[in-house]
Amino acid sequence: MKLHIKTLLGVLAFLFFQPLNLLAQDLDSDQLFELARKTAFDQKDYPKAIQLSKQALARSPEYTDIQVFLGRLYTWMDKVDSARLVFQQLEQKQVQDADFHLAYASLEYWEDQEAKALAIVNRGLEYSPKSVDLRLLKAKILNSQGQYSKAQEIVKTILEEQPGNSEARDLWNRLKNQSEEREIGLSYNFLYFDQQFADNWHILGLSYKQGTKLGSLIFKTNFANKFASNGVQFEVEAYPRLSKIFYMYLGAGYSDNVGIFPNYRTGASLYANLPASFEAEVGFRQLKFTDHVWIYTASVGKYYKNFWFNARTYLTPGDSQISHSYAATVRYYTQGADDYLGFVIGTGISPEENRENLWTESPYKLKTFKTGLDYNFSLKNKNLFNISATYYNVEYRPQTKDNQVDFTVGYKRRF
Q1: In sequence order, what DSSP letters do the residues of 231-254 get, joined into one string?
Q2: Alpha-carbon distance 125 to 99, whole Å?
Q3: What is the three-class DSSP state of 355?
Q4: Which positions ≥6 away from 62 have C-beta within 8 Å?
Q5: What is the DSSP string of 215-228?
């Protein structure tokens, strides 16, 4: 019985594929190539696409595009040796084709043969120095090798040429916390309260960033005048790189001026660089005034052409309920890596803002709406400027709301 079933299945398969095989016999190499691409991309039938590609090569043995596509098909099927054989044959012919070098170098990069991949990319760039795909792959390889500054220079140039390149924008985001460049910063923050407090708040921030091979270290000192009193806070942040996919945020802060600042604050997040220019994050923040406040956060971001979209939530467990905070951010990058206009809208309080003192009051009952604009621009790639303004509508007592404005200006200098 089993034999009869196998025979029947074999006959059905023959009858199904026979019309396609007969059709393929009447097609030229270009038509076979197009059919192979449709079979691979639309039907995800890589074995059949390989068969069609081989039929096309039987008609046109020197058709480079088909040979490169065949190598890619083997790569997608994880038949590394077969893919290498195809690419090595093309290499022996000294093919001067950017797509060939991209396909071959991508294979070696995915197989963690970074030195070999870099050599192939460099040969390709000799023939096609303007190829964005080859330059972007070179930046990825340099990033994997820990040559962050060289990778940054390549990505920066690509973004100047193509501000809407999502893949380059995503890679820049990964690189910005790995660069070994140093940076100093100065910022001033003014918070206006219509009713909730008699005195407005003023915060002056100083920062120093030092890039290392493990990731960036940032040291901050904040001077504040809140409630007509002065205070100082010291913070340190780190962005260690764990792998090609994962990196972390680690932060800690201390102040002896409790009430002006939290006595202690800590935080940690794990970031994952996902396919299609997505990024995800999970983490926590902790504030210590008289009691500890634990806040858990998650976010997802996406680069699309000139845009960056991000959705974030903060969840704060209480005795009987959980406080929710949500924010959606959109950035439009106008030209290079550091030039963008941002828009944010959200509800609730964020521990990342200069409004952390509001957590000492009943954060579980506060109803806050916020919306704001953020403008960042650079001069000569070394001077970074920031201007932002955020409007808050805060229910600080039941049925009593306050209109508040947060205005910030900042300057950073790379060297």
Answers
A1: EEEEEEEEEEB-SSSEEEEEEEEE
A2: 11
A3: coil
A4: none
A5: EEEEEEEEEEEETT
Q: Are 275 and 285 in contact (CB under 8 A)?
A: no
Cβ-contact 175, 148 below 8 angstroms: yes
Q: What phi and psi values does residue 131 have, to the nearest 5 degrees?
A: -65, 115
What is the token pair recorded at 262? 């939290």
Is residue 366 a contact partner of residue 398, using CB atoms and an 8 Å limit? no
Q: How many CB atoms lie within 10 A of CB 235?
A: 19
Q: First CA to last CA across the chain, in angstroms?
A: 78
What stretch of H or E contains 374? strand 367-379
How many residues can be counted in the chain? 415
- Residues 6 or more apart in contact with residue 13 via CB below 8 angstroms: none
Question: Rounded to the nearest 5°, which phi and psi values hold at 171?
Answer: -65, -40
Residue 215 and residue 245 in contact, taking contact as beta carbons nearer than 8 Å: no
Output the six-digit token pair for 61.
Answer: 């043995």
pLDDT tens-digit readout, 30-67: 999 999 999 999 999 999 999 999 999 999 999 999 99
- Its pTM stands at 0.80
